[in-house]
Amino acid sequence: MADNEILQMHDLKPAPGAKKDRIRVGRGEGSKGKTSGRGDKGTKKRYQVRPGFEGGQLPLYMRLPKLRGFKNPFKKQFQVVNVAALAELYPNGGEVTVEDLVAKGAVRGGFPVKVLGDGDIAVALTVKGAKASASAKAKIEAAGGSVSED
């Protein structure tokens, strides 16, 4: 091509070595023929077996037990704390918040809290931001306290 000529679409060609012929497997012994990369005798040489096939042995997916039912991904997991534990943590009474319970190590953070009615309480507690069972609510209110879930 001369210096003053403009490069045209029909003048373009791939770089040397960029275009290689694909290997035509199984087309005679002179060109990767014969076994075609499948090795010697056996089932896999003659045809492909399905994934998970174990040669007639009972396969893994059939040996394992079936999982029954399902797990609800939206289930609320409550951290529970009993009235007896609250009595130990707050011997003088006062206000009980979820943040305070997490700080004292009674529950883990990041989960809603529920107060259950196991044990007895004698001090007045104001429980805020936690759910309470009916028996826990009755015991807290009988001791002069209150429960609010907001």
From TrEMBL:
Record's keyword terms, sorted: Ribonucleoprotein, Ribosomal protein, RNA-binding, rRNA-binding
GO BP term (any one): translation
Record-linked Pfam families: Ribosomal_L27A
Tree of life domain: Bacteria
GO MF annotations in UniProt: rRNA binding; structural constituent of ribosome
Keyword Ribonucleoprotein listed: yes
Extent of Basic and acidic residues compositional bias: 8-42
PROSITE patterns registered for this protein in UniProt: RIBOSOMAL_L15 (PS00475)
Domain Large ribosomal subunit protein uL15/eL18: 80-147
Stretches for region Disordered: 1-50
GO cellular component, one term: cytosolic large ribosomal subunit
Quaternary state and interactors: Part of the 50S ribosomal subunit.
Function: Binds to the 23S rRNA.
Family membership: Belongs to the universal ribosomal protein uL15 family.
Protein name (Swiss-Prot/TrEMBL): Large ribosomal subunit protein uL15
Organism (species): Bifidobacterium goeldii
Gene that encodes it: rplO
